[in-house]
Amino acid sequence: MILGLALEFYSIQQTLSSGGAVSAAIKARCKIEIDRIEKQFEDCIAFLLRVLSSKLNVDTFLIWQI
Prior knowledge:
By secondary structure, the chain is mostly helical. It is built from two helices and no strands. It is rod-shaped and about 65 Å long.
């Protein structure tokens, strides 16, 4: 999922940095897409942190049980 977001972001970046003139409508749409990608990325990172935190808590609990 994170790789897909990175590819989407790269594609939008290429659109904005293309040599030709980019219309205001395209720039606005790209901004909306960038905001969406940032939100999804933040959600992915939050999920991964919850998983890692849970794993650390379980491992710590198991160590103390030994």
